[in-house]
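This section describes the prediction task in plain terms. A model, or a person checking by hand, is given the sequence of a single protein chain and must write out its three-dimensional structure as a string of tokens. No templates, partner chains or ligands are provided. The sample shown here is typical of the held-out split.
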Amino acid sequence: MTAAATTALPEGWTTRRPKLDDAEEILALVHASDIAAFGEPDCTLDEVREMLTEPNTDMSRDCWIALDPAGKIIGWAYPRNANRGDRDFADVYIWPEHGRPALRPLLALLMDRMAERAAEFGHDPYEVRAGAIASEGELVAALEDAGFAFLKQHARLQMSLAGVPLTAPAPPAGVTVREVRGDDEGDLRAVHSVIFRAFADTDHLGADYEAWRTQIGNESSISFDEWFVAEVDGRVVGALQSSDAGVDDNEGWVKRLGVLRAYRKRGVGEALLRRAFAVYAAKGRAKVGLGVDMENPTQAIRLYYAVGMTPLYQADVYRTYVTARAR
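The expected answer:
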């Protein structure tokens, strides 16, 4: 079979650009993909909307959906590069089995666009990563045929909140943990600064403050009573950003946790987590979840295991490089 044949849609199938109005149907697609891959849905409507409006992701230029002859959305492809850095992330979802004919065409469209994004962002060569769970054999094969090679693993962790105390234990001496003041722009800047600087040691692509603030503004609800900072001598040295993404599944969700390098291994991260766990439990949440890079140089995975979290599933991360090409 020729390369052209493998990247052509069947007769009657089409692609177009997504719109925010497609978010609910895209969510159904993602849920079907999740259930086939690891047995349960793991995405919310807000998360789909966030992906569609990610900084430096333009629905009219960067994203595609595939439709079968009946007009059903059976595939979705989009990139992620929040800071215009030299690394992008390629995401492709297809409806299990029925959507298989759209997988390689969508991936080809997205990778072609990656070469253009490389030129637009000023990087050559340009690193592109993608993720797949081991059970997603068709996706793994498509990625490998497109030149991707295994890089590392990412884990989705979870923990039951049954029996978790509703009052958090006292933080280490000299450390104060408090709620973030959501109506205080200075406090929000402190949260972003800590997370941005803490994640600079990792592969996380941090957005600048304005882009991060826009992302927050796009969320349908924010529970700032689930956001916390840790202070030492009045200075914010750690921050935990929660998300309402897990509310529908009765799950507290730790979106980001960061501690400045000089204050690590002093119990600051654990104190922030314990405070969040207590608040989630007090609200009646059944579980808590987060995602983590298994090779994060800060060794965050050790902290998460130490507080009782375990993997719900693990995803493999793949990598390739493209040459910049102007449109």
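For orientation: Residues 1-5 have pLDDT under 50 and may be disordered.
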